[in-house]
Amino acid sequence: MTTNATSPGRPRPERRQPGQDWTSWPTYDSAVLGFRDHWYPVLWSEQVGRKPVAVTLLGENIALVREGEEIHALHDRCPHRGVPLSLGRRQFPGTVSCPYHGWTYDLKDGNLCGVLTDGPESPIAGRVKVRTYPVKQRFGLIWVYVGDAEDPHPLEDDLPEELRDNRFVIGGRTEVRKGNWRFAAENGFDEGHAKYLHNTALWRLFKVMPAWNKTRIVERGDWLVRVQDEVHWEADMPGLGKWTNKRWWKRMPLPDAPGKAQNINPVIKSLDLPGFVSIRMPGILRVAYPHFIHYEWYVPVDTDHVRYVQLMVRFETGARAGLFKLKYLTAIRWLFHGQFTAQDAWMVDVMNAPPEKLYRPDLSLTAWRRKVEQSEPKVQPYER
């Protein structure tokens, strides 16, 4: 029996097979390993040196290898006997050699360019290759493209528009967490959970959370946006009493949309967002505040793990950018990208769905699932 580390001594719920019993959203329900033909962030560039590093992305095992300033990605399996190339050696420039028999592959195209234990005239050299993946570096992150296109679309197509041309300072965190990526994405765009789950978070210690909202979802280009038509700070619950998150030490939060604040960053103002929270394919969340934007990438690892990439961006330069970076390292990284989102990770880990019974605030989830179905994305194949 496996116990849940977040609830000591409590048995983990029995997992249903991914995709089982989900029939209303066939494309989304079958996307347990995510969507192909997209760029995904995997690691910080500084995490990959000369020694190969193993990562799993959309269920595919990949070896990342640095050669100078360039990073290469190869399928992490030597075709000879199936040994991971991430365990390999760097015998010659621009290559990686399998640690078992010295089969040596070109980092750029994956071609077998030599077999060290078969001599310089090995007849199999040049007749075998390992799959390679397109790689880009942006914002200090390594981005890998998983798909079948020989000439993949530009990385910019998979980035929020405000990150393409503007100058900004960034702080971030990336880690692999338990749970399927779809549950993580739905949690991020979920309308109801923050008011209850996060009302104990240190990040919200001095800010009151609403008791409940009336919300609708609007589409803005590639994004779905949660729009709050009504915000209620307390409620008289029939037969129960008053429900409120108000406390004497908490101050009222910002208006229900970033553009309604009195002081707002010009870049964020130009987005003209009707609500704070939005989501887009292939699984990118944007939480826009008046002075900074928090992003989350839900990167599929395998059926039961998700790489959680969190970025906090402030569109500033100079001294203000430096102050924000300091604030991020001393507070935001631990309070927001740590304890706050760890509460989300806890729920994603213990969630046991389907089956499910949805309620009114779950319109955010159904809108996201419907968006996926309409987009007709290419699903990463999953073999049971």
From TrEMBL:
Give UniProt keywords alphabetically. 2Fe-2S, Iron, Iron-sulfur, Metal-binding, Oxidoreductase
Spell out the PROSITE patterns in the cross-references.
RIESKE
The parts of the chain that form a coiled coil are none
Superkingdom of origin = Bacteria
Q: Which segments constitute the Rieske domain?
A: 39-144
The record, for InterPro entries, names:
Cholesterol_7-desaturase, Homotrim_ring_OHase_catalytic, Rieske_2Fe-2S, Rieske_2Fe-2S_sf
**Region entry Disordered: which residue ranges?**
1-23
Q: Which Pfam families match?
A: Aromatic_hydrox, Rieske
Q: Give the protein's recorded name.
A: Rieske 2Fe-2S domain-containing protein
